UniProtKB/TrEMBL annotation:
Record's signal peptide: 1-20
SUPFAM superfamilies linked to this entry: HAD-like (SSF56784)
Protein name: Haloacid dehalogenase-like hydrolase
Key words of the record: Signal
Family annotation (Pfam families): HAD (PF12710)
Organism, as annotated: Colwellia echini
InterPro entries: HAD-like_sf, HAD_sf
Organism classification: Bacteria, Pseudomonadati, Pseudomonadota, Gammaproteobacteria, Alteromonadales
């Protein structure tokens, strides 16, 4: 049987990831890229308590649900969300079939690499770009376009593949939780079909454990072939208050561990950690990644237009959430420093 280049790539990544993750598990330190300190202690103490059958905080395996935001939590998100980078790339690939884009905003600015002009179009303009580049095709065609981008496209300032700009400490955290019988989910404002193309390869999270924003689609038999067609209609936004709804609809269990990095994740952390009454004494964990490293990554929080962390900084100490200072607590940022 002939194996496609996509299949070969996927198998290789899975094998290498499994090898790397096994190495992490076998070491005496389950989080080797995390500096010793209160944050690391908090994580390990939490996992130890909920996995100890003799502990009052013991949680059965089937209830060990952990949810993670993606942008800014598992991989970088500056100077704009990476899915937008994909959309901009697709505009340029599709431009020959749309000559009107040369004189029509926001496409005109995308083609001219004028990011200031693109952002000036606001949310409406960005939705136009996403709609034009994410619909009007089959599910397979969209998957291939994301795969092609993810294996070749590089970040405008680091020169790294976008998909290599994942956080090594968070990869270790994901594996540590899974080694302790957690089921790990991504719950992100990003497009669910976009993320599902690569999450298993880079995070070890299969597509059925990815919750995200959705566009509408329809099923048709085309020349006798069952086909999913993507439509230019936004169906669900998995951000802010939408995140608990997405968890409720797609996971069906309330998480006991939730990680994010921005105010868009507050509702998910609240849903996960806030007690539901005097009878709810379960131990729960909320984590926020604070981007404080302007040298190895980016430093931003309250005033950022991307990944704004304002209310979260104030709520973290009140709610008992763990705030991760990236500069001080992570030995490395990305898996391979280049």
């Amino acid at each position: 049987m002939e194996i496609s280049s996509m299949q070969l790539f996927s198998r290789l990544i899975v094998i290498l990831s499994a090898f790397a993750m096994t190495a992490c598990v076998t070491t005496s330190d389950p989080l080797p890229s995390w500096n010793d300190g209160q944050t690391k202690t908090n994580i390990i103490t939490f996992v130890t308590k909920i996995t100890d059958k003799n502990s009052v905080d013991f949680v059965p395996k089937e209830e060990r649900i952990a949810t993670f935001d993606n942008d800014g939590t598992l991989w970088s998100e500056q100077p704009y969300y990476f899915q937008l980078a994909f959309a901009f790339h697709q505009v340029k690939l599709m431009a020959d079939k749309h000559p009107e884009w040369k004189t029509t905003e926001p496409f005109k600015s995308v083609l001219a690499d004028d990011m200031k002009g693109v952002m000036a179009s606001g949310e409406k303009g960005l939705l136009q770009i996403v709609s034009a580049t994410h619909s009007g095709m089959t599910a397979e065609e969209f998957e291939k376009s994301v795969y092609d981008w993810s294996t070749t496209a590089t970040h405008p300032t680091t020169g790294k593949l976008f998909t290599s700009m994942v956080y090594q400490p968070m990869l270790e955290l994901l594996q540590y939780l899974r080694a302790n019988d957690f089921k790990t989910f991504i719950v992100s404002g990003g497009g669910v079909d976009f993320m599902r193309v690569f999450t298993e390869q880079i995070y070890g999270i299969p597509p059925e454990q990815v919750v995200g924003s959705e566009i509408d689609s329809q099923f048709k038999l085309i020349d006798g072939i069952p086909t999913i067609l993507r439509e230019p209609k936004l169906l669900f936004v998995d951000d802010k208050a939408g995140k608990p709804i997405g968890i409720y609809r797609h996971i069906g269990r309330r998480p006991i561990f939730a990680a994010g990095n921005s105010d868009g994740d507050l509702a998910m952390l609240e849903y996960t950690t806030i007690s539901r009454g005097p009878d709810d004494k379960s131990l729960r964990f909320g984590l926020l990644v604070h981007h404080t490293d302007a040298v190895r990554e980016w430093a931003y929080d309250r005033d950022s237009k991307i990944g704004k962390l304002d209310l979260g900084l104030d709520e973290a100490p009140k709610q008992g959430w763990t705030l991760v200072n990236m500069k001080n607590e992570w030995k490395v940022i990305y898996p391979t420093a280049k």
